Amino acid sequence: MQTATFKTNSRWTERILPILLVLCFFIATALGLYAIFFLRAMLVAERGNELALNAAAVADSVDRVLFERYGDIQLFANDGVIREGTSKERTARLLHYTRLYWYYSWLGVTDAEGTIIAATSARSAPGTPAINPAAFDAVRRSGTIHLEPVSSSVESQQQKAVGFMAPMYGPRGEFRGVVASLVPIENLRSIFEQEGRLRYGQDTYDWLLLTQGGAVISEKHASTDNANGPALLEIPSTARAASDRNHSGFIEEVHHRRGYSVVTGYASTRGYRDFPGFDWIILFRQTHDQVYAPVDRLLWTVGGIGILVILPLTGFGILVSWKLGRERTELIKTRQDLEQSVAELGRSNADLQQFAYVASHDLQEPLRMVSSYTQLLAKRYRGRLDADADEFIAFAVDGATRMQKLIQDLLAYSRVSTGRQTFEPTPMGAVLSYAMDNLLSAIKESQAVITHDRLPTVRGDAKQLAQVFQNLLSNAIKFRGDQPPIIHISAQRKNGEWLFSVRDRGIGIDPQYAGRIFVIFQRLHTRAEYPGTGIGLAICKKIVERHGGRMWVESEAGKGATFWFSLPNPSQKTSIPRSEGVTTEAE
Hints:
alpha+beta
């Protein structure tokens, strides 16, 4: 009996246990390899998503910066000194703008024939031939802003830049030339550098800026030898980004010049508001070694200890690590979404707060002082100096007054979105009556006849909706022509929303300017003809869009205008009575 027992124990010790240990070893090894591959894949996905978010953030920042330059060129084209001044005055103003907006490397002005008459660079002195004749002709024909794709700039044949060109018109609408600007691509590198540091905390990334066709515009580590890297890249990330411009993502691929594997996050620029953008692709990269580095050392150490000491617990540990890894991925994704939302909200609030502070303190206070002293000069020294001095003082007083009005209008425009009033059932008839009460003096003075149909009840901000009616009625009275204004307001339900119209018989609007009038500070007439800053319709459009609607105009010159805006139909019925149609006529 003892012999049988001994033989059984010997067989267990010599054969079965080694087989089981070997089997456990192979199982543990297989599970360990699986864990390594799984964690590496998880790290690739995590870092790839971060790279994609980084690329998307840079794309948005680039679009925003270039949109600001798009707005600058419109500002330059409407600058009175640039349009009317002497060559010396124009050059001084252009140099002032280059110091104020550091993104530009060159600004220039041409006459109606395309000859440069003022510029910031001596290489483009007055009297030189036209700048990009094709672009100049396109701007002269269309009357719109022309975007110049990436090309060598005026300053250096090695420096790439994008250009903006806008038309200039005289008081009677005659074409007077163009204003052109160049923004070097080199000046956009700070956006890439800043976004990369914010996300990773150290310089461990690589980036490229390309066209949709794959042509390299700029990259972090540019090759000094063109033979080492192609000028046109045909890599999976560019193809993926070009196929779906509205979404960012990541992909694993081979570096186009060095040949090692990388994780590439991609995104495309998509423009900003009415700025169409330049159709660029942005890539952010990290090598697989950089992606794996945070856990490689830990994995090998733990794996070695596990193989030598706690091999039987490998399976359990892998199961636990798999569950923890999955939960960690979900937590990281949730945290990233939360951080992104908080960051976007913080930037938005900071921008609004900064704007409000500048408008109410940094700008208004010194301007108020300038206005007060210039008015004091006008009052105290009028008639004591020569006629030129009186005229100059009058110009200063008028300019300070208009600047105060512009600042106040800008502040009112910014407050449209920041006024978080809760939408409530709002009878539009009562809103219209409130707006007409505010315009009672203007209605009587102009002998205006204002009628309206039965108006519905909507959900919205009554104060802001009254501002929409007040601005539209005020414009109809202002641009009435020779006859007393006749204005009619109506509303109709269509496709689940209410369409409101304000129709007048005034001077009308040329259809080609139908979109321009809703842009902030865009005017079709001089201040001498019609006073104002050109912000009223922009405020109306922003209020309507805040309510989930849209706004447009239908008009012809000399035949009046009809302004339309839509508001969502209330989702629930309300017992608040609608306003009955009435007629209001000036006495």
